[in-house]
Amino acid sequence: MRRTIRRAGFTSGFSGKLAAGLLTGAAMLAGLAPRPSDSPASGPTLRIAVVPKGTSHEYWKSVHAGAMKAQKELGGVEITFRGPEREDDREQQVSLVQNLISAKYDAIVLAPLDDTALVEPVKDATAAHIPVVIIDSGLKAEAGKDFVSFVATDNYKGGKLAGDQLAKAMGGKGKAILLRYLEGSASTLERERGFIDAIKQHKDIELIDPRRFGGPTRATAQEAAENLLSRYSDITGVFACNEPTTFGMLLALRDRGMAGKVKFVGFDSGEAFIEALGQGQMDGFVVQSPVRMGYLGVKAAVDHIRGKSVEKGIETGVTLVTKENVTKPEIKELLSPNLKEMLGEK
Amino acid sequence: MSAPDQSRSRGWTALGPVVGLSLVVAFFFAVPPHPGVSWLDVRTVLVHSVQVGVVGVGMTLVIIGGGIDLSVGSAVALAGVVSALAARAEWPAIGVLAAGLSAGAFCGLYNGLLVTALRLPPFIVTLGTLGFYRGLAKWISHSRVIDAAPGWLGDITRPIPADPRWLVAPAVWIMLATALAMAGVLHRTVLGRQVVAIGSNETAARYAGVPIARRRVQMYVLCGVLAGLAGLLQFGRLRSGDPVVAVGLELDAVAAAVIGGASLSGGVGSLWGTVVGAVMMAYLRNRCTALGWENYVQEMIVGHIILIAVGADFLRRRRGS
Questions:
Q1: How far is it, in rounded angstroms, from Cα A242 to Cα A260?
Q2: CA separation (Å) from A248 to A30, A225, A279, B243?
Q3: Please, how many CA atoms are within 13 Å of residue A317, restricted to the half-sphere of its CB?
Q4: How far, in Å, are A68, B85, B143, B244, B277 from residue B50 at the CA level?
Q5: What is the torsional sign of CA B24, B28, B29, B35?
Q6: CA-CA distance, A149 to A336, in Å (whole number)?
Q7: Interface contact flag, A251 B238, Cβ < 8 Å
Q8: pLDDT digit string, tens, across residues A244-291
Q9: Nearest to residue B71, comparing CAs of B236, B251, B278?
Q10: How many CB atoms lie within 10 A of CB A225?
Q11: Given CB atoms, is B42 within the 8 Å cutoff of chain A?
C-alpha cells in the first residue's frame, strides 16, 4: 500500500530569517488579537488565506471553523477564508491563488481542487516566499520543497474502513456498487481505491464499478445515482465517496424504495445521514475531522513562519460512524461541533 | 421565404425532433450489449428531462421572439434557494409556490426591462444577469445549501410516483402541461402571435403597430416564471435549495430548443420539439450509464447532436432563402 503521508522533520531557510524579523516588532501589535498567555504573538499580524475547494458545503464550513479556532488560539493571526463556490471550478481557484500571491499574504492554506492544475500556482507562491500548506487533497508536488506540509485525512484508510463496514453489513456476499465523485479529485480517488481494495478481500462480493462520476453538486449526483440504480437494480450494497454523492445516493435510494433494503455506506457527515442511520437506511459513514484539518493547516503555516519545524505530512484522522456509536459524546463532538460559536456567528 | 417553402419547413420542424429521438433510440439498440430499457428507466429519464424541458419551453418562447435568455440557470438556482428559505420558514405551500415563481418572474422582468429600456442585445444583458442572479442566490443563502422539507414538492418529483395512477412523476405531467399551455399562448393569444411577428421581422411588426417593448418584457417574464417553476421542482427533487445548482442549464435549454427545431434567428420554434429535445438528452445520459460509458463519451455525443440540429436549421434556412 502506498502511503500518501510521509513523516519527517522539516525546517526551511527563509523561515528563520522571517521569524527573526518578526520578533523585533513583537510588542507593537500586542492586544490587537486575543491570545492565550502561553503563546507569544510575534510581530505584525500574519495574514493567512485559507482556500477551500468550495464554499457551499457544510464540510468547508467546518474547515473554516477550525481555522478560526487557530486564529483565536495562536494569536497574531488574521484568517481570510475564500474559495470558489463550485467544486469543479479549477480556473477560479487558480486565479484566486494567483491573486493571493500578488496581494502578498503571509501564508496560504490550500485545499487544491485538482492535483495538477494547482501545482504551478503553488510553486509560484513558494518562489514568492509565501509558504503554502496543502490540506484535504493531494498535490503532485514535493512536500517540504514546493510546499510546507500536507495536512489531510488518510483517504485511502477511510475508503478501506468504509469497504470493510459495507462488506460486514452485506454479510460478506452480494453485489456492491460504487458511485464516484469527480475526475481528478485526489482525495475521493484515494477513498475509491481504498474501498475497492477492501471489497476485493471478499470473494463472494461482486464489485461493480461502472466508473460513473456523480459530478459537483447534489443534483448531478442524484441524477447519476438514479441512472445507476435503474441499470443495476439487483445490487445489495452501495458506497458513495463524499457528501454530495452520499446525499444524492440517499435520495435516489429513498425514492426507489430501496433505502433500508440495500446496504449503504457513505462518506462525510450531514444531518440527513445521521437521520438515515437511525432509520436503518444507512449502515455507516466515514467522517473526517475537517475542524481539526482547518486548525492544523493554519497551525502548520504559523509554526513554519515562526521558525518551528513542521512535519511534511500531518494526518487528521478518520472515524467510522455507525448506529452503535453515533450517540457517544466523542462522536457527537465530531459530527456536530459548535460551528456557530467557533465562527463567531449568532 | 415563399409560402410553400414555409409549410415544408414547418413540417420538418414538427417531425425533425421525433426523427432525431428515434435515431438516438435506434442507435442505442444497435450498440452490442444494449441493456434493456425498463419501465423504471423510462420514468427516470422523464424526471431527468423535467428541468431542461420546463426551462426549455420558456427559452423556446424567447428564441421565437428573437431573443435569448442565458440567465435561466442562475434564475433556477435563485428560485430554488428562495423557495427552500420559504419552506424552512414554514410558509404554507401556496406561499412557497408564490415565492419561487415570483423569484423567477423578478429575474424575467429585470431581463426584459434591461433589454427594452437600454436597447442592449439580450445576449449581453442576460450574460450579465446570469452572474447577478447567481450572486444573489449565493448572497441570500450565504453560499450554502439550504436544507428544508419540500413537502408535496418532493412527492411530485419522485421518479416512481406515490400513486401509480400517475404512471410517471407528476412533475413530468407539469412539464407537458407547461408546453401545452405555452403552445396555447403562442398560437391562440395576441401576445403569442405578436411575439412570433417580432421574432420573424421586427421592422414589419413595428409598422403593423405591435407594442414591441411591452411584448418583449412579457416574453421574458414568462420565461422567468418557468425558470421559477423549474427552481421549485429542483428544490423538491433535492430537498434543499442549492445556490450552485443548474450551472450551464441555459446551454442545455438552448440545445433542447434547437434540437426541437427552434431557429436562433427567431420566428421559428416548436414547444413540443423542445420537450422531445430535453427527453433525448436525458435518455442519452441514462443509456451511457447503462452501457457503462464514461461521462466524457456522453458529453461528446450530446455536443454532436447539437451540431447536427444547428446544422439542419442552417441548411433549412439557406434552402428557404
A1: 20
A2: 48, 7, 17, 16
A3: 12
A4: 42, 22, 25, 18, 11
A5: negative
A6: 27
A7: yes
A8: 999 999 999 999 999 999 999 999 988 899 999 999 999 999 999 999
A9: B251
A10: 28
A11: no
ipTM of the complex: 0.73
Helix (H) or strand (E) holding A81: strand A77-81
CA A208/CA A234 separation, integer angstroms: 11
Could you say which residues of chain B have pLDDT below 70?
A: 1-14, 32-33, 320-321
CA dist A120 and A94 (Å) reads 9
CA distance B240 to chain A (A): 9
Question: What order of strands is seen across the sheet that includes strand A263-267?
Answer: A205-208, A174-179, A237-240, A263-267, A284-288, A318-321
Q: Is B7 on the interface with A (CB under 8 A)?
A: no
Å from B289 to nearest chain A CA? 6
Q: Distance from A179 to chain B by nearest Cα, in Å?
A: 11
Mean pLDDT of chain A: 85
Q: Does B49 touch chain A (CB under 8 A)?
A: no
Q: Which cell goes with A77?
A: 493571526
**Closest residue to A231, CB basis, from B35, B145, B244:** B35
A344 backbone φψ class: left, alpha, beta (φ>0; ψ -120 to 50): left
B178 touches chain A (CB under 8 A): no
CA dihedral (A118, A119, A122, A128) positive or negative: negative
Q: Which residues fall within 8 angstroms of residue A308, CB to CB, at 6 or more apart?
A: none
Q: Which three cell numbers stand for residue A23?
A: 520578533
Three-state DSSP state, A48: strand
CA dihedral B207, B213, B214, B216 (to 10 degrees): 110
Please classify residue B248 by burial: count the beta carbons closer than 10 Å to its beta carbon, then call 0-12 exposed, 13-18 middle and 19+ buried: exposed
Alpha carbon separation from A63 to B6, B142, B230 (Å, rounded): 61, 16, 33
Q: Are residues A251 and B289, on separate chains, in Cβ contact within 8 Å?
A: no
Q: Strand, coil or helix: what is A197?
A: helix
> In degrees rounded to 5, what are phi and psi of residue A191?
-60, -45
Specify the higher pLDDT residue, A114 or A164: A164
Buried b (16+ CB within 10 A) or exposed e, A244-281: bbbbbbbbbbbbbebbeebbbbbbbbbebbbebbeeeb
Whether pTM exceeds 0.80: no
What angle in degrees, to the nearest 10, is found between the helix axes of B39-64 and B271-290? 140
CA distance between the termini of chain A: 45
